[in-house]
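Hi everyone,

Forwarding the result from last night's run.
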Amino acid sequence: MREDSDWQLGPTSRRRWAYACSKAMDEFLSLAYFEEKRLPVIVTRFFNTVGPRQTGTYGMVVPRFVEKALLNEPIVVHGDGEQTRCFNHVADCVSAVAALMHASGACGRVFNIGNDEEITMNSLALRVCELADSTSEVVHVPYDTVYPHGFEDMRRRTPDLSLIRSMIDCAPQHGIDSIISDVVDYYRHGDIAGWPRAHQEIGNSFGGWKRP
């Protein structure tokens, strides 16, 4: 997915596409203010930001998988599990945003912020089990049992990072194992809603994006 790619939307009868449309309207308005009022605006599109303190609320898949893995409970994967996603550590996101704010020529443009390392949901679930030292089994559940009839999922969602790399000359520092490990560590030692653990401040430093 490039920043200038055509939209991939379903019909208005599928309510899930309202989310994408609402974000697109924000972009239209922001860029209009830049063009007409010269308001310094940079549009960023985040692809699956993950990290410590994130919960599984609203379907956040990595913390949801991690929580089940640490409890040795079944990990539920929707569909056949071969759909792919890319996950980006929150520290890399923060660094990228900060760098863009100081990059000459970034205003009035749209940038993908993410990681282009793809992984299937099946592989993600197995990797979570391995890094969490879990005995959880992976269970596949059809979409129709958890979503309204006619739910449409994207088989692949991968950001093209060419533009942001040319602008700030950086690359994500954290791979999928590092992301999972940080979330596992937080769930083991942190204090989040529904997770009965004593609070312990995470000492991870925000290393950010490193130059290739």
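The mean pLDDT is 86.

Cheers,
N.
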